[in-house]
Amino acid sequence: MKIVHLLPSLNKGGTERIVLSLASIQQKKHSVSIIVFSDSNLYSNLSKGLDIIYITENTFIEYSLFGIKNKSTSELEKILSKLAPQIIHSHSFWTDLLLLSIPYINATYVSHFHLHYPDLNSKVNGLSKKSITRYIDTRRMIRKYNKYGFNFITVSKDIDAYYKKRIPKKMWSRIHYIPNSINLEEFRPQKGFDQPSMTNKSKYTLISVSRLIALKNHTFLIYVVKKLITDNQLPVKLII
pTM, whole model, 2 decimals? Predict the structure, then answer.
């Protein structure tokens, strides 16, 4: 099977890491390519052995109230035509917009919702031009999502609920809740690494780097650390 992943860039981030891990596992049985729209790659180690295609054309899409106002997608269209994928897996709202603006390709389309995209707004908030334009753009995208037979992946219950408020109920059967996973092979100790024993009394420091919002659920992390300290008698220090 031929699979193509669409990603804005390979900058440092959770989405980028998930895509690289997914592609690495998929390519064991399938032909997999990753199309990015920047020549920067901050994950050179994780992307070794993967088919990364860098689009150098200034790629963009502009909409007006009446439809597409201007666009530059010729390089993307040529590459997709040449690859002839059976699955096109988009990983951002922006790459969704690009896909919906080019001629349909005979493939299964998948949109992976890693984040809350505020641009997909199903209600008019006020009478400002921006609010009305965003609402019209959303209606236009929903129609295209339906026309192209998009499937959707949501990575958390919160994100799943968020998009079910924005995508019509008749399309809910295409929304699939699949939590993010971790490729454990990427975290195996390197050869010669002296892995510490969790049975000794040396202090272990855990670090969490993320936004301090309820969605990240730091409460659960604190609960886990408390369990390690009280139930397992481990001297763990948590830095948030």
Answer: 0.82
